[in-house]
Structure formats: C-alpha cells, structure tokens
Amino acid sequence: MARSLLLLLLPSLAAARYLGLRNQGNTCYMNSLLQVLHHLPQFRSSVYDMPTSINCTAEEWMPLELQRVFFELEHGSEYGVVDVGTERLTKSFGWGPEDVLVQQDVHEFSRMLCEALQARLQQWGRRDCVSALFEGTISSVTRCTKVDFTSEKVERFCDLQMQVHGCSSLQASLREFVREQVLSGPNAYNTRREDLGRQEARRGVRFKTLPPVLLMHLKRFDYDVSTGDMRKLQSEFKFPTLLRLHRFMRERPAQGDPSPTYVLYGVLSHVGGAGCGHYVSYVRPLGQRQWYEFDDTRVRPVLEEVAVRRQFGGGHSQGGGMLGMGAAPNAYMLVYVRQEEALKATEVDEGLLPSDVRKHFEQSLRRRRKR
C-alpha cells in the first residue's frame, strides 16, 4: 500500500523540483522557450561551457545571464526559491520596461536567441553548439525532363517551417514539404548553359542530413487576403510522439549513421488569436515518461493527453475576450530529439560552468534565502 502511494506521489515530487519563470508582463513566449531549452541536457551543457566571467563585458552579459537563469532553475529549490526571474536576462538583450510588455512570436524569439549565442561563440572562437544541435541540410535536386541535365542545391536549416493550411497532420505537411514541383512555361528551369537555356524540369526536395534536435515551426499564422489582416489557423493538426523520417531522406543512412527516427520531447502551445495570446510549454524530460506543463510560474505534471493530443487544435474562437480564450490551444512549435540522443545519459556536467561564475550564482541564491 505504501509503495503504491509513493508511486502516485513521484510525479508531484519531481514537479516540486522544477521551478517556473516569472512573467514580466508579456514574456510567456520567452518563458516557454527557456523551459524547453533548459531541459535539453545537450543545450544546458553547451550554455554552461561558455567561458563567461562575473566581470564580463557588455557583449558577454547575455550568455552569463542565460547561465544564471538555467542554474537557478536547476538549483533554486535547494535554496528555498519558488520561482526564477528573468529581469537581468531581458536587460542583457537591451530591453527596457516597455519591451517586456510587448507580445512577441516565440519562433522569432528562438531565432534571435540562437543567433545571438552563435555570434558570441564565434567571437570567442568556440565551437558552434547551436548549429551542432539544431542544424540539418536539405537537398533540392532539379532534373530536366527532355535533356540529360541534373543539378543539386544543398541548403542548411536550424528549424523547419511546416505548412498547416490544407494539412491535417505533420505527416501530411511533410509530404507537402517534399512534393515534387513541375517547372515549365514561364517557370521553366534556367540551366545557365548557353546550349540548353531554359528547360522543363522536375524539382524534388529531401533531407540530406538531420540534426540531433529537430525544431519544427507550425505555420499557424498567415495573411487573410479578404480582410488584409493576419489570422490564426485553428484547424486540427495531428503530430506523433514517434516520428520516422526515413521516407523523406535523400539517401538511406549508411551503416553506423544515426537513424532518422525522433521522439517528441517538447510542445510549445499557443492559445489566442493573431493579435495576442498566451504561450505554454509541455516537456517530457529525457529519460522520463512523465510530461510536465510549464505555464510561467506554474509547473505541474500532466497526462500525455493534455501535452500532446489536446494541442492538436481544432477549436474555434467564441469571442472569449482579449486572448480569444474560447479558442482551443494549438501546438505552435514542436521539438523532437533523435532517438539515439534521447537514450543517452541525461546528466549535465556542471563542472563546465566557470568556477567563479558558479560561486557567484550560489552566493546570490544564499542571499535570497536569508531575506
């Protein structure tokens, strides 16, 4: 009986160790993304490994404050902290009091944060951990239909833009993503050869390489030509917890190469309309079965039904006020981790954090406990 009770309490005990982030006004988009990134051991290790200092320059301030947020999320509960603030982090972005009151798009913020980290890593002469985790390549092959001419263009991506309009599932959106195009007439392919000129052709897209962590942005916001305004697509869009991408690869993986199979790790959800709304993130920490909801300062264990299936969308706004709360929540970004990566050890080597920085963070937490 006692053992059964303990098993029931385990998710709640785990949630008690996870801390939330305070909302500064309209920073739920930032909070939801930071929770997803923090719980990725590979990303947290990379952030801790940045050569920061408590006597940092202005350019180094942002990485230092990101380290602080991650450290307090991880250890704050040991010092009696109940939630974590982001005021110093947003100041390091150059934001003032008015900026934190403006609702931003979480996908755009994700790109801004990653690009800022990449720029700092380049200045330090350090390995680009952002690209190492999130970057893949797409192969676009064009084949002329009437002459023997083929060309390939390889492009990099750090996230994938997945069509929602006209697609009821991620699989349908992937099929649309790789659907072969016919190039003819005014759109005929320019071979850039004098003897061939423009030719009818077919162009197909496939994945050439895939990253350890796959970020997918669901294009739920689009332009409504009838009104001239942006609108949010509330239609149902299903996505799996196990994603197999074998059929979308340019070539079969060679023996010993990572398999293109991914497990769902995180869902960033949005409720509301195109003008405003609220972001919440759902995370299943690697090595666990339990999903958790991170809604600013509120952290709670939830069923997979809540974290996944309820985020498919399909509801419609009933005029529920400023946030359009009559609308169902919709997944807006999906985070998949390659199966091999998900099975690896999930411990983070905190020895990577510069010793003076760690000591400074610990002293700061002790002072907060004494208050």
From TrEMBL:
PROSITE patterns: USP_1, USP_2, USP_3. Keywords: Signal. It comes from Prymnesium parvum. One of its GO terms (cellular component) is cytosol. InterPro entries: Papain-like_cys_pep_sf, Peptidase_C19, Peptidase_C19_UCH, USP, USP_CS. Residues 19-339 form the USP domain. This is USP domain-containing protein. SUPFAM superfamilies: Cysteine proteinases. Pfam families: UCH. Residues 1-16 form the signal peptide. One of its GO terms (molecular function) is cysteine-type deubiquitinase activity. GO terms for biological process: protein deubiquitination; regulation of protein stability.
